[in-house]
């Protein structure tokens, strides 16, 4: 299981409140997409789920147990920029993820354990469509293929939670469509709980079983750091078929163009 629970979670830096009053229950196997204006704490939220940051107050639980305050193999992450090792082959990139998890002191497996890990890495590459590229280096891959490799790295240890930080933002539209199909496939096959940040509203509504909108409902012009963002919309999508993006959200999340200066 991989149920994620937040109880009155806040994140502050000194006097600056970034996130406040986060209360949320995400059941195992949900695909949660996260949208919101730039700077409203979406990445900070993901970093708390990963364990790179800890809540300033409140509880963050995984299956009823406080989340470990450091990244671990039960949580995988894929960034917008391809987080792969350029000096390793495609297969060795995935193999390293297994070795670091299973032999954290040496970062290397030997004998039968290494052979089993190589077989597991090869199977994961086949699952993401990179089996034919196992001996290539990342520089010889396209952007979409490098992101497939990053997804393979994150999934090979069978994490309970997969975190995606704008993973398709740097890809061309045609490649993005292929990646959407891939991420749906691996999500359904693995049953992993997914949290994905995106600035693309149609993408959020097409992929997610649930959309969270982060925003700052309280603003004090005299003390702009006094209030943080929270979850202002929690929109369930599972079982509803294709859902159009609400016009209100489009208005709220579309940047307003500045008026031209007058002489």
Automatic annotation (TrEMBL):
Keyword Transport listed: yes
One Pfam family here: ABC_tran
SUPFAM superfamilies: P-loop containing nucleoside triphosphate hydrolases (SSF52540)
Tagged with keyword Ubl conjugation: no
Keywords: ATP-binding, Nucleotide-binding, Transport
A GO MF term: ATP binding
Domain of life: Bacteria
Residue stretches making up the ABC transporter domain: 4-241
The protein, known as: NitT/TauT family transport system ATP-binding protein
Organism of derivation: Plasticicumulans lactativorans
């Amino acid at each position: 299981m991989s149920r994620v629970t937040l109880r009155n979670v806040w994140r502050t830096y000194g006097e600056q409140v970034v996130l406040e009053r986060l209360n949320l229950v995400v059941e195992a196997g949900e695909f949660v997409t996260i949208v919101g204006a730039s700077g409203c704490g979406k990445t900070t939220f993901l970093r708390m789920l990963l364990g790179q940051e800890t809540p300033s107050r409140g509880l963050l639980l995984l299956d009823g147990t406080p989340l470990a305050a450091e990244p671990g193999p039960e949580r995988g992450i894929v960034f917008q920029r391809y987080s792969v090792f350029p000096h390793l082959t495609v297969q060795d990139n995935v193999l390293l993820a297994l070795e670091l998890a299973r032999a954290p002191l040496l970062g290397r497996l030997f004998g039968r354990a290494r052979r089993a890990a190589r077989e597991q890495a090869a199977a994961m590459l086949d699952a993401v469509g990179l089996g034919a590229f196992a001996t290539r280096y990342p520089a010889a891959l396209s952007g979409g293929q490098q992101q497939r490799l990053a997804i393979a790295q994150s999934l090979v240890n069978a994490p309970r939670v997969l975190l995606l930080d704008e993973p398709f933002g740097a890809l061309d539209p045609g490649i993005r469509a292929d990646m959407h199909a891939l991420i749906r496939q691996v999500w359904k096959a693995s049953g992993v709980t997914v949290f994905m940040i995106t600035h693309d509203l149609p993408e959020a509504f097409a992929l997610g079983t649930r959309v969270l909108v982060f925003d700052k409902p309280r603003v004090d012009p005299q003390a702009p750091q006094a209030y943080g963002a929270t979850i202002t919309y929690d929109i369930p999508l599972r079982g509803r078929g294709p859902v159009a993006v609400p016009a209100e959200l489009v208005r709220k999340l579309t940047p307003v163009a500045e008026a031209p200066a007058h002489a």
